[in-house]
Write a structure and sequence with these properties.
The structure holds two protein chains of two kinds.
Chain A (H helix, E strand, L loop, with lengths): L14 H28 L4 H31 L6 H11 L2 H13 L1 H4 L5 H5 L2 H6 L5 H32 L2 H29 L12 H26 L9 H32 L2 H10 L4 H19 L3 H5 L1 H23 L11 H24 L10 H6 L5
Helix pairs in contact in A: 1-2, 1-16, 2-3, 2-4, 2-8, 2-9, 2-10, 2-15, 2-16, 3-8, 4-8, 8-9, 9-10, 10-11, 10-15, 11-13, 11-15, 13-15
Chain B lengths: L22 H13 L4 H27 L14 H25 L9 H22 L25 H34 L3 H10 L7 H34 L11 H27 L8 H31 L3 H12 L3 H13 L7 H4 L2 H23 L18 H24 L5 H6 L15 H11 L5
Helix pairs in contact in B: 2-14, 3-4, 3-7, 3-8, 3-13, 4-5, 4-8, 4-14, 5-6, 5-7, 7-8, 8-9, 8-13, 9-10, 10-11, 11-13
Classes of the chains: A mainly alpha, B mainly alpha.
């Protein structure tokens, strides 16, 4: 067992480093946004492609951000010690929620291109959609999205505000306050994420349904959040911040959870696939038939290999999770696979045949860049860890010797 | 402090062992249960359990003589109490594996005082579970047909059937759980051997202890073996009940065929398992004076897990209902409306009340820190989870063809097998309490402040030692 550690780092990020990542992030984001808009609306016939590419990239980032939000809530819910040093980074990612609300606006504007249940004539000709119109209708859809995003912004704001306040006052009562709110926040988060995924992703094919859809997306978003936390922590320590605070055991644990949620994603995805394959009911199998034909099978198999088999073996050994390079490679790879996961959920609704488009890349750069820029800007302003959190020392003092 | 909060709240949890215990007093407290002659209470309970076992013998004997016609099975309800009891008992077992494997991997040290208990419960519950598919086959003497044994007739079991996967999954689960339990017992069996007062117990515990002398090398091998077994058991927590859920979900029967079944069954199994741990542990800790080891903190933690997993089960109920409507499939919608308002409405509402509503009382700290309330509510969960499996199975009673609809009524022999399985379970459990250390002594000692290399005796650095203990204790997941 290692000796008891005390926080001794500079709690702030080097302003030059912070400003540089902020510039890069925003620069790429704005450039990506302008190119995407130019290609989407300046070139004839690209509008629909723009909205689908945008939605895929948006789902990729919003689930990651929601995952970071739940990381913070979970930390308080289970009264974790180990994750205290990582919590501020997660709080800063979760604080991107207002930006996510902004990035959702194009989805709303493009809803008639994205969701064919939003067309009155389509619904009129389809008894099944008429039946569902009590749920799948535009006003209710918008209302739900507004509620989900407001709830997420509120939870993110609540936790970051109290956490930052503790940096000043060191008041242990704030810890108790954040803990007391965690169970309710967990419930709200679980239900809102489920229905957000039903609305924004599952309803793209409004006839198809799966009860586990919310759980799969929960697993994916947690995996993405741990990958993002690993990368953020690696980046901070590489730039000289928190080198004595982030121990190799912190990285090891983030790696373990990232690996664990890769397996959980596989478990839930396999459950969905297997039960639908075995039951072999046309109204359910159609979702997989589409994703296994006309070239889509390549991406489907990419998920099987890249989202499970490769990371399962690559990250299994403790040396891989404790090694900075290998953990970083694993995290980047899994973020890519998380995008691929959403791509397979969304894109077959647009293209009958597998078809990549330059807008996929530009939208990804736009949303990714803006999110990283906003995170870096926020991170540069505050302490990088909750310096007066009573659990901070404990977070630095454990090891994974067993 | 600017913010008001109750004085009982602390940043770090209270110690895991209460009272003024030394390593020696822990050994005394646990071994005395085994070494003392059986108490009147134990004898009375054992007599009762044997009566239950007798009922099982009679019910199963008559069943073998007459065939499964003595049960209330009919068309379309070809699966009755047997499958309900099977899933119920397999589910009970899950808490043991979760506590021994998953909580171990997550470094949840509070598991040490309940893991022995829970693991024993797992093994006995799986024995009860295995009983039901065995007797449900009707011609029990042909049970070996379920195994893929090469034979001159070229007859093989159906590898595509989840019922066969059950055979593999549950027997693997039983084997690994038994190994895990036994490996964990070895150091404690050696303690009992060293304290033995007569030849029989000396040789019996001596043989079981496999020559354990507490050497450094022994401990190193032991720790490695324990970690490997924990790693092997962790996926089993998921796989066993996942495959049990496949028994239902691979079919195309409305109410059974739904994609959330695997994680939903796993959550339900952990939920029911923790309830059973409480049902067993709370009376035992009182009777054998183990309150210093199974503290209120342990009970509160288990109650929190019950609250969380209860809400996961509630989430699954809600998803099933929502998607049954959203699917726009009239068969799906009918199956769920029929559950809530059809002939078995009473079973559905017992299930919802016991699994989703009553556990909500654990939101109140007063209730979840009360051993009595935890005991009462754990009984509710046990009842609710039995009814959950009953409700799912009874989806059969109104199938696609209305002319074949029928109401399933269990017979006396159905109840005989159910009550009898409890008799079997409690017989085994009471024998365990009497002959084996109910608490993992060696592990409990490892979480006491004395185990810290920097510990300087009572009164010295006690706070620092327990603080350090907290530091290495992780809470996640």
């Amino acid at each position: 067992m290692s000796a008891r550690m005390h926080f001794s780092d500079n709690p702030k990020l080097d302003p030059v480093v912070g400003a540089s990542l902020t510039r890069i992030g925003y620069g790429l984001g704005v450039a990506g946004l302008l190119v995407s808009l130019g290609l989407g609306f300046g070139v004839e016939g690209n509008q629909k492609q723009f909205y689908f590419s945008w939605l895929t990239a948006f789902l990729w980032m919003v689930t990651l951000t929601a995952g970071a939000l739940f990381f913070v809530v979970l930390h308080h819910l289970v009264r974790a010690n180990w994750s205290t040093a990582l919590r501020r980074t997660a709080e800063n990612i979760a604080a991107n929620m207002p930006l996510m609300a902004l990035l959702f606006v194009p989805v709303l504007i493009g809803s008639s291109d994205l969701f064919h249940w939003s067309h009155a004539d389509v619904v009129a000709a389809d008894p099944s959609l008429q039946y569902k119109s009590g749920y799948l209708n535009m006003p209710f859809f918008i209302g739900r999205a507004v509620v989900f995003l407001i709830l997420w912004i509120a939870i993110a704001f609540f936790y970051r505000k109290h956490s930052l306040a503790q940096d000043e006052s060191g008041d242990v009562g704030l810890t108790f306050k954040m803990r007391r709110f965690a169970p309710v926040a967990t419930l709200v988060w679980a239900m809102s994420l489920t229905f957000a995924m039903f609305d924004w992703s599952m309803s793209l094919d409004p006839h198809w349904f799966s009860t586990i859809y919310g759980v799969i997306n929960f697993a994916g978003s947690m995996m993405a959040c741990y990958a993002a936390l690993a990368l953020a922590s690696l980046w901070l320590t590489k730039n000289g911040a928190l080198t004595r605070t982030y121990t190799v055991d912190n990285f090891h644990d983030v790696g373990k959870l990232m690996w664990g949620f890769t397996i959980f994603w596989t478990y839930t995805s396999f459950s969905q696939y297997f039960l639908i394959w075995y039951g072999n009911i046309p109204e359910e199998t159609i979702w997989f038939v589409v994703r296994q034909s006309n070239g889509w099978m390549a991406l489907f198999l990419t998920l099987v290999l890249g989202h499970f088999i490769f990371p399962f073996w690559f990250l299994m050994s403790r040396h891989m999770k404790r090694g900075r390079k290998t953990l970083g490679i694993g995290a980047v790879w899994l973020l890519l696979m998380h995008y691929c996961d959403h791509y397979v959920m969304v894109m077959p609704n647009l293209h009958h045949h597998l078809h990549f488009h330059i807008l996929d890349v530009t939208c990804l750069v736009a949303i990714g860049g803006l999110s990283v820029g906003a995170w870096a800007q926020r991170t540069a302003k505050v302490n990088l860890v909750p310096i007066k959190d009573p659990q901070l020392d404990a977070s630095m003092s454990y090891d994974n010797a067993v | 402090m600017a913010h008001a909060h109750s004085s009982s709240e602390t940043v770090f949890p209270p110690p895991l062992v209460e009272g003024k215990h030394t390593f020696h007093s822990v050994t005394e407290a646990v071994c005395s249960i085994v070494e003392a002659p059986p108490s009147k209470g134990w004898l009375a309970s054992f007599a009762l359990a044997l009566m239950g076992l007798g009922i099982l013998g009679i019910s199963v004997g008559y069943l073998f003589w007459e065939g499964t016609g003595v049960w209330g099975l009919n068309q379309p309800v070809g699966w009755g109490f047997a499958i309900v009891n099977f899933v119920f008992w397999v589910g009970i077992g899950h808490a043991g594996t979760l506590i021994s494997a998953i909580l171990f991997l997550f470094r949840q040290k509070w598991r040490t005082s309940i893991n022995r208990f829970a693991e024993a419960m797992t093994i006995f519950a799986v024995i009860c579970a295995l009983l039901f598919p065995t007797i449900h086959v009707g011609r029990v003497w042909l049970l070996y047909w379920a195994l893929p044994i090469p034979n001159q007739m070229g007859m093989w079991p159906n590898f595509r059937s989840p019922l066969l996967w059950d055979v593999f999954a549950v027997s693997t689960y039983f084997t690994v759980s038994l190994l895990f339990w036994y490996v964990g017992l070895i150091p404690d069996l050696a303690t009992l051997r060293d304290r033995a007062k007569n030849k029989i117990s000396f040789y019996a515990y001596g043989m079981l202890a496999l020559g354990w002398r507490g050497a450094n090398r022994h401990w190193q091998n032991y720790e490695k073996a324990y970690l490997i077994l924990a790693g092997l058991s962790a996926p089993l927590v998921l796989s066993v009940h996942t495959i049990v859920s496949f028994d239902f979900a691979v079919s195309v029967i409305p109410g059974w065929h739904t994609t959330i079944f695997p994680p939903y069954f796993v959550a339900g199994a952990i939920f029911s398992g923790f309830a059973m741990v409480l049902t067993l542990a709370i009376p035992a800790r009182k009777i054998f004076h183990l309150e210093d080891f199974m503290t209120i903190r342990h009970i509160e933690n288990m109650n929190k897990i019950i609250l969380v997993t209860g809400m996961m089960v509630g989430y699954a109920y809600a998803m099933e209902f929502f998607v049954a409507w959203y699917s726009a499939s009239e068969y799906e919608s009918f199956a769920f409306i029929n559950r809530a308002l059809g002939p078995y409405w009473w079973a559905y509402w017992i299930m919802v009340s016991c699994n989703v509503i009553t556990p909500q009382l654990f939101w109140f700290k007063k209730i979840r820190t009360s051993a009595t309330m935890a005991f009462i509510l754990s009984i509710f969960v046990n009842i609710g989870m039995w009814f959950e499996r009953f409700v799912i199975t009874m989806s059969l009673h109104r199938d696609y063809l209305p002319s074949s609809w029928d109401y399933y009524t269990p017979t006396l022999w159905d109840f005989g097998c159910l009550v009898g399985s409890f008799g079997l379970f409690f017989t085994l459990f009471l024998l365990f309490l009497k002959f084996l250390p109910a608490i993992a002594m060696a592990e409990i000692k490892g979480v006491m402040p004395e185990a810290d290399p920097h510990w300087e005796g009572h009164g010295h650095a006690h706070g620092a030692a327990s603080g350090h203990d907290d530091a290495v204790e992780k809470h996640h997941g």
